[in-house]
Design brief:
Helix content: 40-55%
Number of strands: 6
CATH architecture of the largest domain: 2-Layer Sandwich
CATH superfamily of the largest domain: K homology (KH) domain
CATH class of the largest domain: Alpha Beta
Strand order of the largest sheet: 1-2-3
Order of helices and strands: HEHEHEHHHEEHHEH
Structural class: alpha/beta
CATH topology of the largest domain: GMP Synthetase, Chain A, domain 3
Distance between the termini: 19 Å
Number of helices: 9
Shape: globular
Strand content: 15-25%
């Protein structure tokens, strides 16, 4: 949940709040060292309107003095009527079983949405694009990955031959394109090699992966590009 700076942020925030309306249970995650801010209060007000049960999950209790936890919990308790409040340390795996038990206790029993053998409702090309995006995040600095989108232009399965996947990496500025490609294409080649190995493991078959980079100025601020790249449904 963030303050939108451009159209893509607006889409992301809307998707997050839309999800709260469909959810059976909401987990509100905060850090033990951070007191409630105005943004937290605004988010909780919107969540209150959904009428859904909310668990307050207080993370990073391993880095704060335990004496401050009770006043911290009281402060949040006075703000919102939480269904449960659970301090945890994700790093140290402290109280995670307690959190799981609370989730199981508070979500309703219902019929499964999908057959037991179905592990996801997303198509393979979705995971292929996510793998490529992951490699971009792992190989570049902080700013460039957030300005990129990955579009699968072709996904062709071929019996007895390698599948052909052609993907477009979209950036906002020519300088970003140069960074993604790297000297003599070395950086882009590295991303492609890493992504191909993981895609082949996912699909359990050999793949020919072709990547190229295009510039679409200010794509994160334009409805047309957001729809084309699958962000604005």
């Amino acid at each position: 949940m963030l303050d939108p700076k451009y159209k893509l942020h607006e889409v992301m925030v809307k998707a997050a709040f839309d999800a709260t309306r469909d959810a059976d249970l909401i987990l509100f995650l905060v850090e033990a060292s951070a007191k409630p801010k105005k943004k937290d209060l605004e988010i909780l007000a919107k969540i209150r309107d959904t009428g859904k049960p909310v668990i307050l999950v207080i993370n990073k209790i391993d880095v704060v003095d335990k004496k401050i936890l009770l006043p911290f919990i009281d402060e949040y308790h006075n703000i919102f009527d939480f269904a449960d409040i659970i301090p945890i340390s994700a790093l140290e795996k402290e109280n995670l079983d307690q959190l799981k038990s609370a989730v199981i206790r508070l979500i309703p029993v219902g019929m499964p949405f999908y057959p037991p053998e179905q592990v996801t409702e997303h198509p393979e090309r979705f995971f292929v694009s996510e793998i490529i995006r992951e490699k971009i995040f792992q190989n570049y600095g902080e700013e460039v990955p957030y300005s990129t989108a990955v579009v699968i232009d072709e996904f062709k399965e071929q019996s007895g031959r390698k599948d052909v996947i052609k993907a477009r990496i979209v950036v906002e500025r020519p300088s970003q394109k140069a960074i993604i490609i790297g000297k003599k294409g070395a950086a882009l080649k590295k991303v492609g090699q890493q992504a191909r190995l993981e895609i082949e493991e996912l699909l359990d078959r050999p793949v020919f992966l072709e990547l190229w980079v295009t510039v679409r100025e200010k794509w994160r601020k334009k409805d047309l590009f957001l729809k084309e790249f699958g962000y604005d449904k």
